[in-house]
Amino acid sequence: MGSAEARMPRIFGAAIAHAHGGFFYLASVTFILCLMLGGGTRGGFLSDTVLQFLSLPLLVTALWRLCDLPKSQDRRCVLWLVGAVLFLPLLQLVPLPPAIWSALPGRAAAVEAFGLAGHDLGWMPISLSPAGTWLALLGLVPPLAVFLGTLLLTYPERRLLSLVFLAAAFFSAVLGLLQLAQGPSSALRFFAFTNVADPVGFFANRNHFAALLYSGVVFAVAWALDAAGRIQQSRKARRPTTEGLVLLIAAATVLTVLICVQLMTRSRAGLGLTVFAIAGASALFFARPKAGAWLTPSRLVLSVVLAAGALSSQVVFHGIIARFAADPVEDGRLRYARTTIEAAWANLPFGTGVGSFVPVYAGVEQPADLIANVFVNHAHNDLLEFWLEGGVLSAALVAAWAGWLAFKLLTVWNPRVAWGQEDIDGSLARAAILLLLLLAAHSVVDYPLRTSAVMSVMAMACAFLVEAPEENSARRLRSRDRPLERGDGGTTRRSPQALGRPAAAAAGPVMPRPPNIVWPDSTEEARPRQRPERSPPLDRDFS
């Protein structure tokens, strides 16, 4: 094992050497399952149910390990924010007496419907759609498991997880190419209602697939930057190595494929945000001057964009022009936003309940706003939909998250603040900031965060902005998970060092050292000295 890890690149060998406890593999597999099964646009799909069930082992294990992890101020703050997010739908499911429930804003129509039906009002929750609120609450299980799992990973393991994410995004992009090659009737399209003329990967909607692609672009640029730095360091040290070159080729290949498939999705939001993703990720070069002058942002961006454009020019440009030539008002987003705002004002301050958008919107939609053959399942603006469903509490949570993100932006992008153990750790944290900003901007015109897959990517990015646990704490958690083996194949009790307690405290009081004795400080001096050879005994005659 040791020789194999020594031959690996330093950045991979360190992560694999610290992942023997199995928790990293559990977190990685769960994250991959989120990207593969979480592409549905609404709750209730079979794939979502299976994903929530498969996420439980990671969630339970992470909660159990989190109890023994020291709570820093940074970690405690983000855990309180996550707890508040979970508390909102639970609060909306608490039954209220009829007198209180009927007095809530926006309940007059429901009270009148009960009266016309001849039913008495019983104890009712705040949510106008309790089933939808339960589905929304269960939908938080996969991203919560990914967030807590990533939160407990060390910096080397987080680097490896980011590579797992890039590999999954690359595989999803290749799947999208196969879908496009096989046409609208491709068996590789896993949802009945989907964009049959465009690549969608594991998603049902091309816009959400586009969110995965530009997320991968940001992380691929971060790794390309790290590869350039490794090549530059090897040149200065005059020790040629292939590690940086392999990383650079792999990152450039992934980056080219992701941009190429992004052009083929013909998603207007995805294309626009990809441009900002490339421009923002290029700022990582200026945040890390050790990348080397030979690989500048302009050279990398120009080469990748030219390669992607040359590969996809015959397929996508006429479709892109047609997409941007269409009137954006015709798709009804402005109508959805106006109706959502009116409903949100009518149901302040408590909202209508998380997951209740469809029945609430159908009850307030005006005939003049109807669009033929169009079913409105979301507001196409997550901020407005959060406001409608959660009211004042939802707006407060969004404001708290925005404040936390602004604080992290000032911290991570501060050149005088060292983040992580290696330069790549700081680059990945800055890339996570850019990714969260892009998802927030995308949420203004669409609903990418309503899918478990994109929400899990957001959860991973948020966890990257929290300091990783110390190596000693993570090692204690791993050692506690498995018994200690004896040489004869049995098990034995752990030493105090393995349990995180000082050996002297477990063995009893320590006797003080005798005075006037110089104790050796190094291992060289601590070695036992060789006894001098004795001279042979003298022959004496005692007779």
From TrEMBL:
PANTHER family: EXOQ-LIKE PROTEIN (PTHR37422:SF21), TEICHURONIC ACID BIOSYNTHESIS PROTEIN TUAE (PTHR37422)
Segments of skewed composition (Basic and acidic residues): 524-543
Protein's UniProt name: O-antigen ligase
Pfam families for this protein: Wzy_C
Region (Disordered): 475-543
Residues of the O-antigen ligase-related domain: 256-398
Molecular functions (GO terms): ligase activity
Main localisation: membrane
Top-level division of the source organism's lineage: Bacteria
InterPro entries, per the entry: O-antigen_ligase-rel_domated, WaaL-like
Transmembrane portions of the chain: 12-38, 50-66, 78-96, 131-153, 160-181, 208-225, 245-264, 270-288, 300-326, 386-407, 428-445
GO CC terms of this entry: membrane
Stretches with biased composition (Low complexity): 496-510
Entry keyword set: Ligase, Membrane, Transmembrane, Transmembrane helix
Location in the cell: Membrane
Membrane topology annotation: Multi-pass membrane protein
